[in-house]
Amino acid sequence: MTKLKSYATLLGATALTLTGAASVSAADLEFYFPVGVNAPAVETIQALTDEWAAANPQHTVKAVYAGNYEETTTKALTAANAGQPPQVAVLLSIDLFTLIEEDVILPISDIANSEEDKEWISGFYPAFMSDAQFEGKTYAIPFQRSTPVYYYNKDAFREAGLDPEAPPKTWDEMIEVGKALTVKDDNGNVTRWGTRIPTLGLGGAWLFGGLVVSKGDVLTTETGIEARMDTPATLASLEFLLRLAEEEVMAPGGITWGDTPKAFLEGQTASMWTSTGNLAFIEENAEFDWGVGFLPGGDGPGAPIGGGNFYVFQDTTEEEREAALDFIKFMTSPESAAKWSIATGYVAPRPDTWETPEMKAYAERLPQALVALDQLAYAEREFATFQRAKVTQYLVDAIESVVTGNAEPAEALAKAQEGADKILSEYK
Amino acid sequence: MNNRLSIRLAVIMLVIPCSLLVAFTHYPAIQALINSFWNNSSSRRPSRFSGIENYQALMEDDRLAQILINSTIYALGTIPLAIGLSIGMALLVNSRLPGTTLMRLSFFMPTMLPMIAVANIWLFFYAPGIGLASQILEVFGMPSINFLGRTDTALASMMFVAVWKEAGLFMIFYLAALQSVPTNLKDAAKLEGASALRVFWDVVMPLLRPTTIFVAVNALINAFRLVDHVIVMTEGGPNNSSALLLYYIYEVTFRQRDFAYGATLTVLMVCLLGLLAIVQYWVLNRKAHYQ
Amino acid sequence: MNRGLNRILLSTMGVVFAALWALPFIYSVWTAFHDEKYSANFQLGAPWTFENFIEAWQSAPFSLYFANTMILITIVLVANLILCTLVAYAFVRYKFRWAGFLFALIMVQLLISPEILIVENYLTLSRVGLTDTIIGIALPYLTSAFGIFLLRQTFLTVPKSLDEAAQIEGAGAWRVLWNVYVPLAWPVYLAYSLVSISFHWNNFLWPLIVTNSPEVRPLTVGLSVFATVDSGVEWSLVNAATLMTTAPLIIAFIIFQRQFVANFMRAGIK
User: Fold this and answer.
1) Which H or E run contains C236?
2) Which of B29, B142, B230, C235 could form a disulfide with B137 if both were Cys (CB 3.0 to 4.6 A apart)?
3) Domain ABC transmembrane type-1: where (chain C) (predicted)?
4) Spatial contact of B32 and B271, defined as CB atoms under 8 Å apart
């Protein structure tokens, strides 16, 4: 009798402990991710997710491909507002303030508070961490970051009698070099422009940010309530864009982001300013010798940073947060980041990624990939404030109105500043 | 029919179906009006009554002024062009010339495509330097035109895309009308020695009036309802030169997440459409009166 | 002789015009079947390939999108056919107060379609928790003012004698509807179905804001998500995807050209 009782108690206790243990550490993760490149991104993410799931059988993770960045943010916000947020998602780094205002994310530094974790956080490139922090806390972890670079057609350089290993470094050089590169046909129509800088829409605003950084200023600060749209730096940047068209180095009027790489491949332009994320596309399709350099700068090199970070959501349990943190650590680990970076062209977020054999081989095969990395030292955060979409629209309007010849730079910027200030004044 | 409607039948046949309709047409219109007097809520504070603040913002909105001008030009441009082209197409296809089946296929095909597909096709076509339009211009020795990158051509480019899509559909309506024109009328006119042109202008055109009215109303509705191409091709740019009212509502509400202002703009749009409906009704009634 | 020349001239002009009109579409189709590098360099002898279709198909869950679109148009069509029939029948066969007022109220939807009111309709959907569902996309369209209008016109042409004869035989309201009115309106039902399918297959803005997940996304939204990427656009790929998503409608149209045209015409005349 006693033996049976004690046996039963032991069995019961074991069962209880096992189920207890399982429920303490088991978590179901839902992971939203966007795809913003023409690459086998969905498969790569799925493969990485499966790898983590296999190594952590007590958890389950469902990777949800949610469309492009905008859709993924909308989806995450909608789900959060309905009380069923994803546990972890990759969203635009510049959505930080929107997510904070809607009160749907929590600082990762709150979850990752052990000494080990803090060391892990400090292992990311500081340039990428700058826009993940707010009021002293780290809210996000960099994952798929990008920065624009200057792509140029080396064959075209040779044709024009320029040194193919010496891309222009300053705005003045850009114009000089550009003039030599522009080719006209017998009718006087330009068949190849010197360079092509997208100026329309959010892509144009992103590149514009780089111009401003190269003149020693920034467009927004980490407070999220300041938009510096009417400054000597922005004025100089707009004037540079106008000068490029005046000197017939660049096509006049608005230039779209989407068909710029194609124009470059077709020889419509001898150089272009676009994301390092296009490396794979150019490598695959270029039928000429090409190179990559820093974005030519006003007073020195300067570039904006873009891309997406990992965020962890509120309305989640302790176990889910722990699991999410573990998942993030895995996805940003050198091996995973190497796979992701090679597949998509995004810049790996941690220096130690470059030590892996895959990345070393990649860098050897495609040394152009290292330029974005080196440029990081001169890069600043992308335009981000509270009410980001509305405020950025003022900047976009200002740039577009100037390059299409509908407004003078000074008045366009003043107007943009006025609009932005009005919106942001609510937050001060 | 003079049967009386029992309650039970009324509920099944009228109340249920119509309440669905009302729920997504009339109810939201009224909701928009109510919501336009409140401001946005966020997770930190609920929305508060803000009176006519949103309407004040409306009045001061420069982009809106530009957009209303755009919408007017767009409507006034696409409607006559679509009508004119579709009548021409119908006449062509209706004549017993060789090749009309192919012509009809070509004209009607864009109607079968979703506007978003049309937008992609034309985005590709308009691309400066590399698109087909530029390739053709190059053949003729002309510089490529930056259709979607210039404020003076962006809206016109959008208008042409819309006409390309809908002219084929209107052609079909005119075809039906043409085929129901009694031949004895045309023969009588020809007997009297009237030329083909006169036959068309004096006999056929008046008979096409009802179709023209139908087509014009359709074109008007489409001019306001269909903004897919703006979303995909220009996002309202450059510098708001191709933005239309419904596109602005979409951008403000779903991209900038400003639901309160979106509601205000919706009220404006509904009022505009209502006004157009009244004007249309009045014009038609007057015309009918003088018949 | 003159007339003959005129005809040839007119015919040639017509064919040239039609060819120009179709040019953007034809070029898009051509690009879909050729390698990316020919998309900006037309060369007649360029090799044909199916690569673009394969790659496009693999890059996004198009089969899922297809299924969603099919489910959507089916739900809308079935609901339309039933609900609009009921309402039209009520208007034609019964006399009740406010009939005129109710009819005018319904006709408002012709001008103020659900897309105009996207802001509030979206809020309504999210309140009942139907955002990101296919039924959510369909909901505002289940009762169609256009369908009611068409069917009412058609039912009005049904001879009263037939109705009365059926009633004498003891048929109730439903029997009369099913045995007398519906069969006579058959061609209109067909015409309306074509219009409805075509409209909802191609609808974009409303499904765009209602859906967030690939699981419920219809073709039009899927295509736009596919075509808007941060890095450069691959035109041959986008054109292939465009063709894939519109192919069913196009093929159906080419096969049933005559019926399509006739039915659209009928929908217009009435």
Assistant:
1) helix C235-255
2) B142
3) 66-256
4) no
Contact A281 C132 (CB under 8 A): no
Return d(Cα B25, Cα B34) in angstroms, integer. 15
Pairing of strands A183-184, A148-153: unpaired
Out of B9, B125, B265, closest to residue C173 by CB: B9
Contact C40 A262 (CB under 8 A): yes
Q: What is the pLDDT of residues A124-155, one digit of tens each?
A: 998 899 889 898 899 999 998 989 999 999 99
Interface of B with C in 202-231 (CB under 8 A): 211, 214, 221, 224-225, 227-228, 231
Enumerate residues 6+ apart whose C-beta is below 8 A from A159: none
Q: How far is A286 from chain C (nearest CA, A)?
A: 10
What type of residue sits at position C243?
L
Residue B238: is the preceding peptide bond cis (ω within 30°)?
A: yes
Distance CA(A148)–CA(A271), nearest Å, equals 13
Task: Give the mean pLDDT of A191-215.
Answer: 93
Suggest the residue from C117, C124, C149, C158 to mutate for an interface test with chain B (most B CBs closer than 10 A): C117
**Second CATH level (architecture) for the domain B62-290:** Orthogonal Bundle (1.10)
Residue where the block lists tokens 């510089």: B143
Domain ranges of chain B: 62-290
Amino acid at C65: Y
Q: Which residue of C has its CA nearest to B224?
A: C116
For chain C, list the domains and their CATH numbers.
2-53 (no CATH), 60-269 (1.10.3720.10)
C110 Cβ under 8 Å from any chain B Cβ: yes
C25 and B121 in contact by Cβ < 8 A? yes
Is the pTM above the cut of 0.95? no
CA distance C253 to chain A (A): 31
